[in-house]
């Protein structure tokens, strides 16, 4: 199959398209864009100037990729969610388009769903999955294999390391740090009820150590520190340090 460009698409003469690329109706491909082999850009999608799409990437309908972005091989942008027959939380019918802010980098094999809004200068690591209607602030990092569930919010300059799970409805502030494989939860009923979901709130400058678990509805205050492996079942006061199972306050040592 050869490259196919719909007659209504607008492709800059300076854009470079690989082999077997499909460009849908009314799609816009900006100047200096480089698109790898076997990519699909669906109807009404927009790729900003000087952005790059790796081989096999899919940009779903109406998705907007900003200026100077890098989307690595086999990423999927703007995926529409589906509900299973037993899903307790049904997906909506209408979503805003996915927007990827200028100068952002999307890793290989990532999936980012429709309705999500990524600000400028964001890095999303390989194999990450970001569900619908999430918001991520400027210059934040979402590490390799991170799973972010629907309607979670993340502030600016926050770092989420490898394999962490950000539950749906979580609210995470600015400059928060998550170590690897942190787990957050939003359901105290273990699936028995869908009307009581409450993600945790993690305020600005908090730090969460690797393999910590944050239970539903917990608030972790500004500049608080959760030690590695802790299980947080109650609110943590601003500036406090907690550790253990369940997590309890301890004296924070001064930096050496």
Automatic annotation (TrEMBL):
Keyword Cell division (UniProt): no
Record keywords: Transferase
GO molecular function annotations of the record: transferase activity
Record-linked InterPro entries: GMPPB_C (IPR056729), Hexapep (IPR001451), Hexapep_transf_CS (IPR018357), Trans_hexapeptide_repeat (IPR050179), Trimer_LpxA-like_sf (IPR011004)
Mannose-1-phosphate guanyltransferase C-terminal domain location: 4-79
Pfam families named among the record's database cross-references: GMPPB_C (PF25087), Hexapep (PF00132), Hexapep_2 (PF14602)
Protein name: Mannose-1-phosphate guanyltransferase C-terminal domain-containing protein
Species of provenance: marine sediment metagenome
């Amino acid at each position: 199959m050869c490259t196919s460009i719909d007659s209504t698409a607008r492709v800059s003469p300076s854009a470079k398209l690989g082999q077997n690329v499909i460009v849908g109706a009314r799609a816009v491909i900006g100047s200096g864009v480089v698109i790898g082999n076997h990519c699909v850009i669906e109807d009404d999608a927009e790729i900003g100037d000087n952005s790059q799409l790796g081989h096999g990437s899919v940009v779903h309908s109406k998705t907007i990729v900003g200026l100077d972005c890098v989307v690595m091989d086999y990423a999927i942008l703007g995926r529409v969610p589906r509900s299973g027959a037993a899903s307790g939380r049904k997906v909506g019918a209408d979503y805003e388009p996915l927007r990827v802010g200028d100068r952002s980098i999307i890793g290989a094999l990532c999936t980012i769903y429709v309705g999500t809004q990524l600000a400028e200068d964001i890095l999303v690591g390989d194999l990450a999955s970001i569900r619908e209607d999430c918001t991520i602030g400027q210059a934040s990092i979402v590490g390799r294999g991170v799973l972010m569930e629907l309607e979670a919010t993340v502030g600016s300059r926050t770092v989420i390391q490898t394999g962490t799970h950000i539950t749906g409805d979580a609210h995470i502030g600015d400059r928060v740090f998550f170590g690897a494989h942190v787990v957050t939860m939003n359901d105290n009923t273990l699936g028995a009820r869908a009307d009581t979901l409450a993600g945790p709130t993690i305020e600005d400058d908090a730090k969460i150590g690797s393999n910590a678990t944050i239970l539903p509805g917990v608030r972790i205050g500004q500049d608080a520190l959760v030690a590695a492996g802790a299980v947080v079942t109650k609110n943590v006061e601003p500036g406090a340090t907690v550790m253990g199972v369940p997590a309890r306050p301890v004296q924070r040592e001064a930096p050496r």
